Amino acid sequence: MIEGLNKIFESRVRLGIMSVLMVNDWIDFNTLKELLGVTDGNLASHINGLEKNEYIEVRKEFVGKKPKTSFGATKLGKKAFKEHLTALENLLKKNT
Amino acid sequence: MDNTKQHLESLSEIKNLMERSSKFISLSGLSGIVAGITALAGATFAYLRLNFYLNTTSFDRYTTRAISSTDLTTLTIELIGIAAAVLIISVSAGILLTIKETKKNKQSIWDKNSKLLLINLLIPLCAGGIFGLILIYHQLFVLVAPITLIFYGLALVNASKYTLNDIKYLGILEIILGLISAVFVGKGLLFWAIGFGILHIVYGTLMHFKYNRS
User: Fold this and answer.
1) B63: Cβ contacts below 8 Å, ≥ 6 apart
2) Residues of A in contact with B108 (CB under 8 A)
3) What's the pLDDT at B214?
4) Residue A3 contacts residue A87 (beta carbons within 8 Å)
5) Is domain A7-89 annotated with CATH 1.10.10.10?
6) Domain map of chain B by residue range?
């Protein structure tokens, strides 16, 4: 960890997932996939990683007969993301 | 430094994703320009019809008294027809240009955000439109331009939370213009041409160069 930067957010996809979840309460898998422009497998593995760290929570529901999976950021996840943002901003201030 | 560049890229990507996922940002500036030009054409046409029937462009209870009630009905229907044509042309052009813009931004034209935008725009807008028609029914013509401008402005301010924030300032300008036009009764057409014509063209041009040009 360099000066408060969170290793988990080193991946662009994970950073992207958290950005979207900061401004949306719940978002489903397909919308997230479209927004980030990644493949199913890629997105699923990064979601797993974030879930393991308890940064996001998963909600499964049925829309008609189709299962729909939605994701939301946890308090812990939001806090971690904000700290990461502050660290990024501080680093930029220092370097300019 | 390479790191700095990387961090800057991260930050701008975060901002971009937050906007793209929570707001409908694919408004087309060109559609504002088209709407403005259509409104100006409509206003010119309305001006000619008013001159033809009333020999003046002031459409109020004094000038309308000079003509027969059949003529007044025909004139009212013609003016509503012109307004409806302007509305239909600008809305269709707006939808087409917006669809084009969504493709560029990889946004969907019909998603949660565009629905929120539309419903928040339509509630004040429909209220204002119906109010305007009721005023015409009561022959309170002088209030139609102020009311439509004010309600349109309120609709834009209300909808601006779900799209580009700049729309809010256009809304505020429309409200101010509507209030001023309520003071200068009888000059409705002029204010209408400024509010729906000129402001749209100016704003559409600004938006086009700020967001869409690429």
Assistant:
1) B54, B56, B186
2) 34
3) 58
4) yes
5) yes
6) 27-203
Q: Residue B2 above 70 pLDDT? A: no
pLDDT at site A1: 44
> Would the CB atoms of A95 and B21 count as touching at under 8 Å?
no
The alpha-carbon gap from A18 to the nearest alpha carbon of chain B, in Å, equals 9
Angle at the Cα of B209 from the Cα atoms of B204 and B212, rounded to 5 degrees: 85
pLDDT tens-digit series, residues B108-159: 788 888 999 999 999 999 999 999 999 999 988 899 999 999 999 999 999 9
The closest CB to that of B21, out of A15, A20, A92, belongs to: A20
Q: How many angstroms separate the CA atoms of B78 and B188, rounded?
A: 16
Between the two ends of chain B, the Cα-to-Cα distance in Å is: 28
Termini Cα distance of chain A: 21
All structural domains of chain A with their residue ranges = 7-89
What is the rounded distance in angstroms from the CA atom of residue B63 to the CA atom of residue B140?
Answer: 12
Choose the mutation target among B14, B25, B107 for the interface with A, i.e. most A CBs under 10 Å: B14
CA dist., res. B46 & res. B57, Å (int): 9
Closest CA–CA distance from residue B172 to any residue of chain A (Å): 26
Angle at B109 between CA B107 and CA B113, to 5 degrees: 75
Q: How far is CA B20 from CA A32, B107, B155, B187, in A?
A: 11, 8, 22, 41
- 3-state secondary structure (DSSP) of residue B63: coil
CB–CB of A95 and B4 under 8 A? yes
Backbone angles phi, psi at B57, to 5 degrees: -105, 5
pLDDT computed for residue B6 by the predictor: 83
